[in-house]
Structure of Probable RNA-binding protein EIF1AD:
Amino acid sequence: MSKVTKRKHVMNEALWDDYELPKENQSVVKVLKSKGNNLHEVCTSTGEEYLVSMPTKFRKNIWVKRGDYILVEPIAEGDKVKAEIVKIMNKDSIKYYKENNVWPKQFEDDKEDIKNDDDELFVNTNRKVITYDSESSDSDSESGIDT
């Protein structure tokens, strides 16, 4: 299988939601930070923090950033790395988990849930944002200055 074909299949699998509920050994966790070498530090709903690994099929095809939610499955031989990523959650799968009362209650209060669609847009921080104060123009006219 070529790289392009593999990438296409992995992306389709990640983007296409089969809406499958997690099995008993799987759990939803939040990504805290990336540690390098396809390792990510995560936090469970109980507050436990540990490392998870990204399987080779996701590497160089799917990216996980801080604040994302992922579905993990524990691995037996893990001492420091205790789980492996099974699925990267998106808005639709999170909504489906909430509807089926599978979503952890501790993650419901996160400000990620309040996010609007405009927050997803890229903001260019290289340009200075100019804001106009409409009250300053009103105060000039009220002060009695005739032009």
User: Anything to note?
Assistant: Helices lie at 3-15, 91-99, 134-142. The chain has a mean pLDDT of 81.
